Amino acid sequence: MAQASLTLKGCFKAHQKRGFSLAMAPGFFRKYAYCGALTAIEEEGCYSVNAATGASAGAIVAGVLGSGKRPLEMKESLFALRREDMWDPSFFFIFGLLVGFKLRQTLEINLSPVKHMGDAKVKIAVTAFDLLRFRTRILTEGSLARNVAASCAVPIMFQPVFINALPHYDGGIYDVAGMYGLEKVHDPADDGLVVNLMASRKQVKHSVLPPAIKNSGATILTIVLENVPHSELRNNLP
């Protein structure tokens, strides 16, 4: 165990001068686990993110990083989220139980002062699934809160989020590793390391590696945060 930790730290240290790109897989309550992992990386003096991307829960963490918060500051934003902050049931159950307006409002507050993705403190991209074109879109422009909300719009639970008059659902429908957005924000000249945080080994099996990353020559470090029970996370929500 000690040797594994040393190897992991050594990998970060070897790329610390150039920094790394961060990709985070979807996983519902896994944003808390991602926060913990990034906090540990920062406490070890290895945190140097140049770009962040993700889907669903990963998109929330990417958005918070884009707002300028470091991992040690992130906990306050993430643990401030309460169920009532996103609970706005639709009177007519069409396309989803929750309207999603309250979620977007909450995101706008927690992602402030950054409102637009182009103003993010680090390069960020999130993914959402275009229902009409039936494909995953990489979002790097426009409202940060809206795009993160679109990436979190779990089918049936949330109504789709409209972007340019097109309905979008959860980015994790296809982007199961949260790496798809790296195609837009990863710069091999700046980032020699790609760190991929995942919630389970199943996501590794079904992950989609963008060709641009596969051919970039970057070192890909996958960290699987297994055995983090959803029930325990839910019970500890404020």
From TrEMBL:
<protein>
    <recommendedName>
        <fullName>Patatin</fullName>
        <ecNumber>3.1.1.-</ecNumber>
    </recommendedName>
</protein>
<feature type="short sequence motif" description="GXSXG">
    <location>
        <begin position="54"/>
        <end position="58"/>
    </location>
</feature>
<feature type="domain" description="PNPLA">
    <location>
        <begin position="22"/>
        <end position="183"/>
    </location>
</feature>
<dbReference type="GO" id="GO:0052689">
    <property type="term" value="F:carboxylic ester hydrolase activity"/>
</dbReference>
<dbReference type="Pfam" id="PF01734">
    <property type="entry name" value="Patatin"/>
</dbReference>
<comment type="similarity">
    <text>Belongs to the patatin family.</text>
</comment>
<keyword id="KW-0378">Hydrolase</keyword>
<feature type="active site" description="Proton acceptor">
    <location>
        <position position="170"/>
    </location>
</feature>
<dbReference type="InterPro" id="IPR050301">
    <property type="entry name" value="NTE"/>
</dbReference>
<dbReference type="InterPro" id="IPR002641">
    <property type="entry name" value="PNPLA_dom"/>
</dbReference>
<keyword id="KW-0443">Lipid metabolism</keyword>
<dbReference type="GO" id="GO:0016298">
    <property type="term" value="F:lipase activity"/>
</dbReference>
<keyword id="KW-0442">Lipid degradation</keyword>
<feature type="short sequence motif" description="DGA/G">
    <location>
        <begin position="170"/>
        <end position="172"/>
    </location>
</feature>
<dbReference type="InterPro" id="IPR016035">
    <property type="entry name" value="Acyl_Trfase/lysoPLipase"/>
</dbReference>
<dbReference type="GO" id="GO:0016042">
    <property type="term" value="P:lipid catabolic process"/>
</dbReference>
<comment type="function">
    <text>Lipolytic acyl hydrolase (LAH).</text>
</comment>
<feature type="active site" description="Nucleophile">
    <location>
        <position position="56"/>
    </location>
</feature>
